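Troubleshooting log. The previous structure file for this entry was overwritten by mistake, so regenerating from the original sequence record. Sequence copied from the archived sheet and checked twice against the printout by T.R.
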Amino acid sequence: MRRKALFLTTLLAFSLLVANSRACASPFLSTTAKSAVLMEAHHGQILGEKELHRKQPIASMVKLMTLLLAVEAVEQGKVRLADKVTASEHAASMGGSQIFLAPEEVMSFRDLLIAVATASANDASVAVAEHVAGSEEAFVAAMNAKARALGMENTHYVNATGLPAEGQYSTAYDQALLLREALKHPLFLELAQIKEYSLRGGKFKLYNTNKLLWWYRGTIAGKTGWTEEAGYCLASAAKRQGLTLITVVLGCPEPRSHFRESIKIYNWGFARYQAVPLLPEGARVATLPVEKGMEDRVDILTSREVVLVVPRGEDKGITQQAELPRSLKAPLQQGEKVGYWIVKQGGQEKLRVSLVTACEVAETDFYTTLRKVFRRITKGP
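Regenerated output below.
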């Protein structure tokens, strides 16, 4: 009898230990998505996940990269929103979601981007790719290069549309990285927030496939995807009370389930975490002397906003400090990284943000140095 009681007690204790270890290892809520991730957009911290590195097809979410490269091309002056783009036979031949471009049809680059961002138009995506890079193949090469640059280690692109193709895949984590990068671009945000739009003089109406723009308060961006192989997919971002979260769900099983699962994850995240704003982007935190420079001193700025994301109610014991050299040596470029702004909580480092120079400082020449020395002598002690 004693042995039986001892056995039951041991079994109960072991069961509680396993349950507790599982709870600690995986506090994220359950989801019907095959893989999912919740990331805070400020510094990329993962708040919850389910098989975040699982490789799988992502359907039209491929167009997130198409939009990012197109937006960067506009920012860099390679193309203009007002450019007139002539649709090729190849672009017009795309199936699936489309705006039914005719070969040789002319449309503005801006309208094509809106068609990609709202209606997920495959023909518009290829037209955009060809206008930016000359061909879809060259554009895809740029897509894969950008993925590598962003640290998207488990992603490979084959086309600019997301139409089924062997060897095209990504992960929930990689798509969160991509969306986090895209959110930095005002033009991307503008495109992603368009709910409806009219083409061809009002004859063709576009509606955004990201229904969270209507259904979830604070939604600021998103891109859907669906094929039989990929299931229902969605990468999106929402902002409430200064906290911006990114949710990616891949392989959801039935229509609208990608919206339902995303909303569930957002509710989970916003209920448990808060943003603690500390410094804005471009805040001056120091002024350092410059050796051998045309200017004697240079201001030091934060390279991005400093926001600490913490569990709700755990916003005490935060300290901040600069990690900088005593002086700098010219020449210096504007925006050159020279140190770090370090955020600690309870004595532990939680965040490290680069500090950069506010302006360029050229190296002084011999005569300028001589004049500076002369001024110091004549001023006296």
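The chain has a mean pLDDT of 91. Archived copy saved in two places this time.
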